[in-house]
Design goal:
2 copies of one chain form a homodimer. By secondary structure, chain A is α+β, with helices and mostly antiparallel strands. Helices cover 46% and strands 17% of the residues of chain A. In chain A, strand 4 and strand 5 form a beta hairpin.
């Protein structure tokens, strides 16, 4: 929560009987609102395995190295993915937080898939 | 689905035993990957009522008129929100598709709210 926004001022969402209070500048929300983030989180979590940069990039048709590497940095800095080195190869995987987030994103992707079939 | 991407090449997501096939350039997915889209869909669907531009803009602290009006245009062109005129005032509401989408977005916002409390 940024210091200049009172959390109470950011209770803009109504969900049934309750409110949701969320700072629009909250980093996790901001990173989701960037190109390829939703797909990257979904792809990196496939089969719960570590993946290297080329595998990840090739999973997303017509994406470029530069935007994917920028977005991977964004996802690392928000604690959604983590980086490791295995036999000299850099790999990426979701953090526990990233896995929880992916579970919430999958229904959206299923819904979009169904609606655009 | 863009003609230059074979849908089978875009089956990049694994969800349990099944795949999800989605074109990264699919307009609904692209608009979600833009700043404020997720919040706007959520705010515009509050209490299932039509809202005018100023109400919507003020619901999102520190946003500007120009980015909100651009994003509203994106959401109209993807069939997520619709525009109407009531007593000379332009108002916006979710389409049926937009409401279904909002239902899938709310769990993500709840999750982010909980994790950043």
């Amino acid at each position: 929560m940024a210091e200049d926004i009172n959390r109470n001022n950011a209770c803009m969402l109504i969900d049934g009987e309750t409110q949701i209070c969320i700072d629009p500048s909250e980093p996790v929300l901001r990173v989701l609102g960037k190109k390829y983030s939703i797909l990257l989180i979904s792809v990196i979590g496939n089969e719960n395995t570590r993946r290297n940069f080329n595998d990840i990039r090739k999973s997303i048709p017509e994406s470029s190295n530069s935007i994917i590497s920028r977005r991977i940095r964004d996802l690392i800095s928000t604690g959604i993915i983590k980086k490791a080195s295995e036999n000299g190869i850099v790999t990426y995987a979701l953090t526990d937080f990233g896995y929880e987030l992916r579970k919430k994103l999958i229904p959206i992707l299923r819904f979009i898939e169904m609606k655009t079939r």
